[in-house]
Design brief:
The protein is mainly β and about 260 residues long. Helices cover about 5% and strands about 35% of the residues. The longest helix is centred in the last third of the chain and has 8 residues, at about 250-260.
Amino acid sequence: MNRSSGLARVLRASAATALLGLSAVLTVPGTAHAVANGTDVAEGQYQFSTKLTMTNIPRADGTTYDSACSGALVAPQWVITAGHCFHDTSGARVSGAVPYATTATLGRADLSATTGHVVDVVEVRQASRQDVALVKLATPITDVAPLPVSTTAPRTGTILRLTGWGATGSVDATPTTRLQTGQFKINRIAGSAVMVVGYAPAANTSACLWDSGAPYFVENADGTEALVSVESDGPACPHSQEETTERVDRLADWIHQTAA
């Protein structure tokens, strides 16, 4: 199942069915932290981290619901996220004009803060063979440094950091109001997928619901960062099993050409 779904985790092939209950899930009261067993992000850190908020997503029966995904600014006017975050009523991924009202919030670690930006999303570009999409913002962001995209193949054993706006668990889940983070180790590479497992603060630190599209990035000794993959799919959270993320080095040319 994909990370934008708020129901019990199901296989990606059943994602369209799973999405039918999201409107009810998003009305559950209370506040939850993102990235199960993660930690709070301090204000001013990882400002490229992006919350995508979708409203009035249409269902085949004519009703609508709201949802959310995570992402990262990779160019002044472009955010990378999971492709399955943007779809038609049958669950098929779509490109072109944004299919439902979507806003991007970035440059802040707390949704109640007034720092950063809240910008409309106007366009979606889907990667041809991977669960990755680029979304275009209505106006460029000039005071937040984009996250550079790695052009190097990922390596087993590398430690990555994740930042996300999802929930803390799969039961009675709600999206977070405070950006969360955790570290992960690359367990293996499987084609276009980077399979990761929790590393810190705990072995069962894991991505959760509404973390779809969240960035996994390497933090280099010289203080630089580089995007390695984005969140796609995984077991119910929290968990200590493998999580499926989509590598971006194979998409680097497409990302740069689109953002240009």
